[in-house]
């Protein structure tokens, strides 16, 4: 499958799931996880996770019921100097800025008032890994590690 098509769909799916509604739009899955689904024609994106302050999850992109791309992630709140809700609202803003060049998480950097989002990644859609951080007044309050790539 054309990688530009994969990148374009991933951006659209990510913007229309957690980044657009967070936990208010999520569904409960039969395995006890929570998450999101986004469909368009033969494409399906599923993002499932377990936990809240510390959580683990996976995102899978299917084309005609065949998994073609995936990502695993593990995130955690590391400081409670600001409310958890503020951290996750800021994370949603960052994730809405996902790009076609790196359709994994958010932009490299986003700063709004006292909050700063930093996303460092290596690789491309084929095979990648990364780490994101949220800082409040220079102190780390959230960390997330992720990795993934094409499934053949």
From the structure above, extract its key features.
3 helices; 152 residues; alpha+beta; single chain
Please give a structural write-up.
With 152 residues, this protein is α+β, with helices and mostly antiparallel strands. 26% of the residues are buried. The longest helix has 13 residues, at 3-15. It has one domain (3-150). 19% of the residues lie in helices and 50% in strands. The chain is globular and about 45 Å long. It has a nine-stranded antiparallel sheet, covered by helices on one side.
Give me the secondary-structure category: alpha+beta
Count of distinct strands: 9
Total separate domains: 1
Series of H and E elements: HHEEEEEHEEEE
Query: Order of strands side by side in the largest beta sheet?
Result: 1-2-3-4-5-9-8-7-6
Helicity level: 10-25%
- Biggest β-sheet: count, sense, barrel? 9 strands, antiparallel
Distance between the termini: 11 Å
Strand content: over 45%
**Integer average pLDDT:** 95
User: Can you count the helices?
Assistant: 3
Radius of gyration: 15 Å
Low-confidence stretches: none
Overall spatial form: globular
Can you describe this structure in just a few lines?
The protein is an alpha+beta fold. It contains three helices and nine strands, in the order ααβββββαββββ.
